[in-house]
């Protein structure tokens, strides 16, 4: 008798568990200090934001007018019954805020990336991507008809240094890869398109992409204009650029980046995403992006939360939160550096990026990530171990995310717990 499906699945899960890779759902403790979520500006719990949100939706809730009222659901996909004047106005507002021609809302950053990368690159085109690009981009590329080729993380030229956290890569630099592609006469003549995918801030390493250098390299190697840079600003929205417009805006690259994906589930404190692009690309996505076409549109309560947080940014209310966040980042890095100086742990046991952090994401690299995370959790601090295959083998870490809502005392408490663990781990090695 053949094995039952559940038996087969249980065997696969058992194998993953024996490798220490089994994923489980957990419920965050209400009493633990959050150093794990991506809510960098703490907007999801900000009293002013919540008050503004309620004030915004209340008139719509109480209205009996079809134009002013709203339902708990959208009623269908955008192409059928789920579209509204409010949705289209919100897209225009967001696009204008970020200095883009147009924008198209998606239910999540995952759906935005899969939809964009699956349908835009055509047969014969090539997608060149940073080796640490998000899983959603990988899934979109798998659905695409284009060829895909990785380049070493954040390495634009061969002379560039490797990432302190990611180590030496087996992939070429972006410049070397583009140079090899231009040996194809159709690429050099501009008859094949090359799409270059990068993130503004990388979610596991916390480092920023060298976007200016990437753009300059693409323009140099592909002077026919057939190089199209796509930037996922998921972890840079809200905390970089004037009033949180993102890294592309901070660097003044709005007119040199072909498309941007901004998501709202991180620093913005709500949910959903938008692809910023040309009006022609927006029309193309409406026609061919399956993750847009075949899904129920976001309902008014979700759209209203996006509108509320963007108003909060545009009015400058988040500026002080960003400043406080930057102060906490510097404070924690100083404390962690001092721990290493005092105890001298081996790099395998515990290390951090010695350079000043570029984002609120601080990876604590250690071969004992699960043990360190558990130690901190037991002392009231929510942190998560990140292990292979989510990160490359040998790059396990405890991922610490700082928030504007954290305090200096909480940061010091977490660092004290880390130091206690390091002290014990160093002694056990003696």
Automatic annotation (TrEMBL):
Which Gene Ontology BP annotations are present? biotin biosynthetic process
Q: Which domain of life is it from?
A: Eukaryota
The answer to whether UniProt assigns keyword Transferase to this entry is: yes
Does the record bear Transferase in its keywords?
Answer: yes
Q: Which Pfam families match?
A: Aminotran_1_2
Q: Which UniProt keywords apply?
A: Pyridoxal phosphate, Transferase
Q: Which residues form the Aminotransferase class I/classII large domain?
A: 33-418
Q: Which GO terms describe its molecular function?
A: pyridoxal phosphate binding; transferase activity
- Needed cofactors: pyridoxal 5'-phosphate
Q: Give the signal peptide as a residue range, or say none if absent.
A: none
Q: Which InterPro entries match?
A: Aminotrans_II_pyridoxalP_BS, Aminotransferase_I/II_large, AON_synthase_class-II, PyrdxlP-dep_Trfase, PyrdxlP-dep_Trfase_major, PyrdxlP-dep_Trfase_small
Family membership, please give it. Answer: Belongs to the class-II pyridoxal-phosphate-dependent aminotransferase family. BioF subfamily.
Kindly provide the name given to this protein in its UniProt entry.
Aminotransferase class I/classII large domain-containing protein
Identify the species of origin: Hypocrea virens (strain Gv29-8 / FGSC 10586)
């Amino acid at each position: 008798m053949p094995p039952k499906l559940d038996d087969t699945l249980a065997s696969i899960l058992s194998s993953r568990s024996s490798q220490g890779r089994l994923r489980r759902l957990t419920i965050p403790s209400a009493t633990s200090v959050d150093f794990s979520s991506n809510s960098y500006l703490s907007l999801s719990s900000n009293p002013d934001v919540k008050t503004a949100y309620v004030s915004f939706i209340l008139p719509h809730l109480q209205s009996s007018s079809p134009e002013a009222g709203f339902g708990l659901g959208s009623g269908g996909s955008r192409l059928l019954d789920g579209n509204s004047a409010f949705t289209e106005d919100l897209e225009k507002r967001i696009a204008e805020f970020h200095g883009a021609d147009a924008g198209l809302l998606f239910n999540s950053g995952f759906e935005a990336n899969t939809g964009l990368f699956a349908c835009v690159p055509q047969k014969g085109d090539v997608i060149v991507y940073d080796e640490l690009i998000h899983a959603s981009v990988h899934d979109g590329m798998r659905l695409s008809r284009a060829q895909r080729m990785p380049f070493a993380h954040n390495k634009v030229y061969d002379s560039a240094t490797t990432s302190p956290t990611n180590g030496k890569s087996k992939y070429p630099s972006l410049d070397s890869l583009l140079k090899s592609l231009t040996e194809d006469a159709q690429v050099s003549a501009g008859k094949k398109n090359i799409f270059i995918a990068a993130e503004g801030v990388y979610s596991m390493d916390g480092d920023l992409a060298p976007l200016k250098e990437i753009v300059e390299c693409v323009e140099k190697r592909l002077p026919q204009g057939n190089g199209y840079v796509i930037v996922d600003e998921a972890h840079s929205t809200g905390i970089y650029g004037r009033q949180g417009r993102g890294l592309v805006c901070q660097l003044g690259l709005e007119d040199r980046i072909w498309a941007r994906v901004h998501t709202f589930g991180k620093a913005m404190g709500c949910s959903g995403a938008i692809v910023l692009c040309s009006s022609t690309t927006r029309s193309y996505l409406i026609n061919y992006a399956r993750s847009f076409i075949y899904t129920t549109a976001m309902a008014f309560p979700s759209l209203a939360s996006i509108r509320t947080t963007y108003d909060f940014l545009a009015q400058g209310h988040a500026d002080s939160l960003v400043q406080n966040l930057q102060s906490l980042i510097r404070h924690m890095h100083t404390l962690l550096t001092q721990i290493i100086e005092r105890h001298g742990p081996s790099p395998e046991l515990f290390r951090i990026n010695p350079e000043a952090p570029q984002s609120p994401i601080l990876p604590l690299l250690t071969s004992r990530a699960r043990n360190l995370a558990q130690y901190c959790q037991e002392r009231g601090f929510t942190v998560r171990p990140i292990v292979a295959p989510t990160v490359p083998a040998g790059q396990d870490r405890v991922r610490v995310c700082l928030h504007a809502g954290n305090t200096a005392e909480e940061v010091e408490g977490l660092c004290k717990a880390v130091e206690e663990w390091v002290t014990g781990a160093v002694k056990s090695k003696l």
